[in-house]
Design goal:
about 350 residues, conserved putative lor/sdh protein from methanococcus maripaludis s2 fold, Elongation Factor Tu (Ef-tu), domain 3, Helix Hairpins, eleven-stranded antiparallel beta sheet, six-stranded mixed beta sheet
Length: about 350
């Protein structure tokens, strides 16, 4: 009986020793982690919305007469105008030739008549000063001159219909093809030009943000086709009325687009900046753990993880400001923190 008790006691001591050995082994395990040095940097708090970007200016020029069509050359590239070409206001895009139409305008005859009526007016003014004509004669000469001037201006406007001129600075976005010399009918589309160096977008904003969003606030705009580029806009107008059905209010954003990165009709992601700080401690939002004691992160000091309770300030979708609990140049754990506990040994992965 004593021999059995002795054997059992030895076995229990052996098992206890194994457990202690396992615990010591576990205590020496280094958990692999990634860290990031804490630096001061800016952070923005913003409200996200989306919308479609539209050009500031858009004009389509159509033929106002039936005539033969001739596409002009782009003087910068010495070839015919093409889609995507940039144009200046006043550039000649196409000619519409119709000799019968031009002859019917009789511009030269009307200009000659203008010269005659102007000469007669100067003569009547001279005579009136000398008492040679009445005030009525002078006024009649003045009326004839003004009528002749109006007739010449109207004739020039009629002839302008034979020249398709770019009405604004912009980019050619539509240029229907016509064979040189072919006849186009009145109302035929000739060219569409858009000015999208400045663009705008209309957005619907949730009611809860009506006191947070104000005219003049900066907006950071991105599009999935431009992953490396952020375009700057501003809130220019806000409606004070709430839509009863959608519980939203309307806003208008002006977009500076000097390099033509955004294109008309693009779907745009807009972050309206409501708060900003330049030099504060900022960490990734997804490394914060919610514990009973509060928001927690881990830092690494001499190969050991230390638990830190933090207080936060501004935040956005990916980052958060830390107002208390961390110091500059400390190393915060950014990966592998899920399995850490206070005083865990860690191995930093390069």
């Amino acid at each position: 009986m004593k021999k059995c008790i002795f054997i059992i006691a030895v076995a229990l001591l052996g098992m206890s020793g194994c457990r202690n050995q396992d615990q010591n082994l576990n205590a020496d395990v280094e958990i692999p982690v990634l860290v990031e040095d804490i630096k001061l940097k800016p952070i923005e708090e913003f409200i996200n919305t989306t919308g479609t970007a539209f050009p500031k200016g858009e004009i389509e020029s159509k033929s106002e007469i039936t005539a033969s069509y001739y596409l002009e050359k782009n003087p910068q590239l010495n070839r015919g105008w093409q889609l995507g070409d940039r144009v200046k206001a006043g550039a000649l895009i196409a000619r519409l030739e119709d000799k019968e139409y031009v002859n019917s305008v009789t511009l030269e005859t009307k200009e000659l008549n203008l010269e005659l009526t102007e000469s007669e007016l100067r003569k009547q003014e001279s005579l009136y000063e000398k008492g040679g004509v009445t005030l009525k004669d002078l006024k009649t000469a003045s009326i004839n001159y003004e009528n002749a001037k109006t007739t010449v201006e109207s004739a020039k406007l009629q002839l302008e219909k034979t020249r398709i001129i770019a009405p604004i600075d912009g980019v050619i976005v539509d240029l229907p093809y016509y064979t040189q010399g072919t006849q186009v009918e009145t109302g035929s589309a000739i060219v569409k030009i858009m000015d999208y160096q400045v663009m705008y977008m209309d957005v619907q904003l949730p009611e809860k943000y009506i006191s947070d969003i104000k005219p003049g606030q900066v907006v950071n705009l991105t599009n999935y086709t431009l992953p490396e580029d952020t375009i700057i806009g501003k809130i220019t107008q806000l409606s004070p009325a709430i839509d009863a059905d959608t519980r939203t209010f309307k806003g208008k954003i002006s977009i500076e687009n000097p390099n033509y990165l955004l294109r008309p009709g693009m779907f745009v992601n807009a972050d309206i900046v409501t708060n900003h700080k330049d030099t504060v401690i900022v960490i990734p939002k997804d490394i914060i753990l919610s514990r009973q004691r509060g928001k927690t992160v881990f830092i690494v000091d001499r190969g050991v993880a230390a638990e830190r309770i933090i207080e936060t300030g501004l935040e956005n979708l990916t980052e958060v400001e830390v107002v208390r609990g961390l110091r500059v140049n400390e190393r915060v754990v950014t990966s592998g923190f899920e399995t850490l506990s206070n005083r865990s040994k860690v191995k930093i992965i390069k």
